[in-house]
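[agent] plan:
  1. take the single chain provided in the ticket
  2. run structure prediction with default settings
  3. attach structure tokens to the ticket
  4. add a short note for the reviewer (M.T.)
[agent] executing step 1
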Amino acid sequence: MQSLIQGIDKVTFQLMAVAFVGIHVPLSVLVVYGIIVGFQGLVSILLLVLVATLVSTLITLVVVYRLGVDRQETAQSIS
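[agent] step 2 finished; step 3 output follows
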């Protein structure tokens, strides 16, 4: 895991961080709404959104990582 993090350049890391935060905003809002209003009847929706958030996060992070690797390979082939 440590070597994976060291292999990510700054731009790729920034893209991954922004994607991670952006994906988790709807889940965070739903949790805050549940805290304010109450979780009565909201549990099934919250679980569905949690699963969807985790899947979309995984897909987004893999895509952004691959874009970074492709960008690095292209830069190396040009040099």
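[agent] step 4 note for reviewer: The radius of gyration is 17 Å.
[agent] ticket updated
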